[in-house]
Amino acid sequence: MTTYDERASLSDVTTTAERVRRAVEGVIEGKPEVVRLSLTVLLAEGHLLIEDVPGVGKTMLAKALARSIDCSVRRIQFTPDLLPSDITGVSVFDQQRRDFEFKPGAIFAQIVIGDEINRASPKTQSALLESMEERQVTVDGHTYELPSPFMVVATQNPVEMEGTYPLPEAQRDRFMARVSMGYPSPEAEMRMLDAHGVVAPLDDLQPVAHAHDVLKLVDAVRTVHVADSVRRYAVDLVAATRHHPELRLGASPRATLHLVRAAKAAAALAGREYALPDDVQALAVAVLAHRLLPTAQAQLGRRTAEQIVLELLQRIPVPDPAAQHRWAADGRRPPGARGL
């Protein structure tokens, strides 16, 4: 448990996050929003899903984020023949001891890179469910705790591509946010050719933070205040997805929790002790869209979950943030402020 003397301040959050951001952006050209969202998910104790076509740097982003932090890292290449025991581990009979010995799988690391997660069967994908939600693994009736901090950074190709399986709804719901890399701008692609044409920037990337630093930053993010009005705004936004006529599956209560936690992390990265409705709005598409299932009629009309979330953001009333700005102007912490 982190003591008060060891606890990081919000200035530590911004300073350390800036070091990690610069390190990752030295490898990933022209994608500052994607890098910032990755850091937000890390500090919010979430898991990140990176979805896009092959070759745009999904795995490179995951590796750069992992290498910028001095912690244990394991990479899992998901393939159709990958078994659940390859991920969680297996009990092997030891002839000398005449007893079973547990051999940990690839999930036993602080940052786990799941490459092309939707190329494995749904049965293998489900091996991640317990570890991502409860940060533990149960094998043969025995439960093993996972190291802390623990984050899964998974990449996947669009489901219409050959050799892919759709992620189960329960699996998608455990990812705090989904981000798409997109193609780089011509200028960024030119810089990429200059940087990657001579050396591999990933090979030269050195850790700029430690796992212990991340734990302290996570504790600092937990202290960010979220006013009742901002919480109500998040609840109203998520509840609206459950009654939308173009959605056959809305967002879960876990989505609400993830949205508020991500807003707190975004506020901390901005150097604020309180979250604003702007934080919720900025993260709503990344946190909610991948959990939603449009109806068949909406799909025929080429309606996407992202478009529906954006429309809800326009429709749901936004609370007045003036009171929170006054707290900042007065230099006082909101009364009764505490973590969520």
From TrEMBL:
Domain ChlI/MoxR AAA lid: 240-309
SUPFAM superfamilies listed in its UniProt record: P-loop containing nucleoside triphosphate hydrolases
Domain (ATPase AAA-3) ranges: 47-176
Pfam families in UniProt: AAA_3 (PF07726), AAA_lid_2 (PF17863)
GO molecular function per UniProt: ATP binding; ATP hydrolysis activity
Superkingdom assignment: Bacteria
Keywords: ATP-binding, Nucleotide-binding
Family statement: Belongs to the MoxR family.
Designated name of the protein: ATPase
